[in-house]
Amino acid sequence: MCGFPGAADTVTVARQLRGQERAITANRQTSWAFADAFVAEDDALRWARERSREAGLPSVSPGTGAALRLLAATADAKAVAEIGTGTGVSGIYLLQGLRPDGVLTTVDPEADRQQFAKQAFRAAGFAGNRARFIPGRALDVLPRLADGGYDLVFCDGDRLESLDYLAESLRLLRPGGIVCFEGVFADGRTVDSGVQPAEVLRLRDLLRTVRESQELTGSLLPVGDGLLCAVKRG
């Protein structure tokens, strides 16, 4: 993982990456497309994606969804918290990775989006008691959730609140639990040496914080728009 302590370091990282791109760019897009195509999506996922496109909302790529499903299954997760319900694409993948008795708690400020997700979950074959929908701003809802009660926390909300999500996740996760952040590449802007908006600067802070944390073991996965994952040390 690359650290981002300041503008000078960002420029250095960008130069290093430009040097590497000469060797890998020819196959990168083909490889990423192959990784996404490797994931078979059913009718429920396709329906949720279509609702997301109609609403002008981003949704996780198939490769990112498969990674989330794998992480949930690897953690033998029984309780997962999701920040950003959307129309249910990521939620379906997380539920697929959860134990049969596992529950997804998903938070979103837009209750109408959660209605789409409820339909998608039903279409995917999940009983109504497998998901708990909480409408509201994440930083208002998360403090009400139980300390150490979650195996995985997936963050796909406001990037400006990323560090706050991380702090809440450390409280919510059991030892050995996993926190994931979607979209940390920010369409390539995270390592772009040009002037960037506040949300990109906050992502750089997040990357640096995870990398330097003594409480976390992290990795940055090159799926979708970048999936930052970290395990909470015991």
UniProtKB/TrEMBL annotation:
One of its GO terms (biological process) is methylation. GO terms for molecular function: methyltransferase activity. Coiled coil: none annotated. Keywords: Methyltransferase, S-adenosyl-L-methionine, Transferase. Its EC number is 2.1.1.-. InterPro entries: Cation-dep_OMT, SAM-dependent_MTases_sf, SAM_O-MeTrfase. The keyword S-adenosyl-L-methionine applies. It holds the Pfam family Methyltransf_3. The keyword Oxidoreductase does not apply. PANTHER family: O-METHYLTRANSFERASE RV1220C-RELATED (PTHR10509:SF85), O-METHYLTRANSFERASE-RELATED (PTHR10509). This is O-methyltransferase. It comes from Streptomyces noboritoensis.
